[in-house]
Design goal:
About 50% of the residues lie in helices and about 20% in strands. It has one domain. It is built from 11 helices and 11 strands. The strands form 3 sheets. Strands 1-9-8-2-5-3-4 form a 7-stranded mixed β-sheet, sandwiched between helices. A two-stranded antiparallel sheet has the order 6-7. The longest helix is centred in the N-terminal third of the chain and has 27 residues. With about 300 residues, the chain is of the alpha/beta class. The protein is globular and about 50 Å long.
Length: about 300
């Protein structure tokens, strides 16, 4: 299959999955998770490596249970994405059952301050983006997919509730700065491995040094902004609760090393609220202070 055919198939599959009822998607997620588990997929392998690294105090039985649940949550997240992009704003916002701690953002706006939403790959960030777009007209930093047709679907879906997108380049950073200086709200996923070594520092994440972005620290230094952590927690019966909480206060430090340590601790605190819903299949620990870690197959 050539590249063009593969991209077309991705678009067709995305539109098919986006049209499914939520109940069917959840059943399909269980089937997909079973395949990922028993085929010993990369999702299972990477999740196993990461959870074993981060939860050494759990028993082997407890870690296996968490790994298996995480694979299921990853399958759910993957199948929910097309629905978040293709279903109507009304339907997507109807998936939000409860919002806790939103006054943290409202207070900053009332004080004429910008707000940086720190939203890791936890729960489902697409539904969080819908709520934030509709409520605060947020500008989200994003990395576009390589498939242009898929990007159009994603862009239209993410903009459907009022949010804006800022690309991961200098133009995007300028957009974020402008938004924050006008007391607006921006959203950043803080737990991706930065491609540019100049844009990262190494700091502890679950007691292991990882490459951590410095962008949030730099934005806080250049603006009178407040950082707020949040995620959309998936509920057992379906749908999500939006949870906001204060960041580790070290995030505001003028010392960039201290600040990124506070950023990672903030992510850890959110993960503790729903450990199986974190994106453990991501190779978060692939880069260490001494170069590449060869821990993933």
């Amino acid at each position: 299959m050539n590249k063009t055919h593969k991209m077309h198939l991705e678009i067709v599959l995305t539109r098919f999955l986006g049209a499914l009822p939520f109940s069917v998607s959840r059943l399909l997620a269980r089937f997909l998770a079973t395949l990922l588990w028993y085929s010993n997929s990369d999702v299972r392998k990477n999740t196993t490596v990461n959870i074993n690294l981060c939860f050494p105090d759990l028993t082997q039985t407890e870690r296996k249970k968490l790994i298996k649940q995480s694979v299921l949550e990853s399958a759910r997240t993957g199948l929910e994405m097309p629905m978040a992009w293709l279903k109507s704003a009304e339907v997507n916002l109807g998936c939000i059952h409860k919002v806790i701690g939103h006054e943290l953002v409202e207070q900053a706006i009332e004080n004429n301050q910008g707000v940086i939403i720190i939203a890791p790959h936890l729960g489902n960030w697409e539904y969080l983006a819908h709520y934030l777009g509709q409520t605060f007209q947020i500008t989200n930093l994003y990395k576009p997919p390589k498939n242009p047709g898929l990007f159009k679907i994603m862009e239209k879906g993410r903009n459907s509730t009022g949010g804006k997108l800022a690309p991961t380049n200098k133009k995007g950073v300028v957009m974020l700065l402008k938004t924050l200086k006008s007391a607006g709200v921006v959203g950043i996923l803080p737990d991706q491995v930065p491609e540019d070594d100049n844009g990262c520092e190494f700091a502890d994440f679950f007691s292991h040094k990882v490459a951590t972005m410095t962008l949030i620290t730099k934005l806080l230094h250049r603006t009178d902004s407040v950082a707020v952590a949040c995620f959309a927690k998936r509920l057992p019966q379906g749908g999500f609760n939006i949870l906001f909480q204060e960041v580790d206060q070290r995030v505001y430090s003028k010392d960039i090393q201290v600040s990124v340590s506070g950023l990672n601790k903030t992510v850890e605190q959110l993960v503790a609220l729903a450990p199986a819903q974190y994106q453990w299949e991501y190779k978060r620990f692939k880069k260490g202070p001494n170069g590449k870690r060869h821990i993933y197959v």
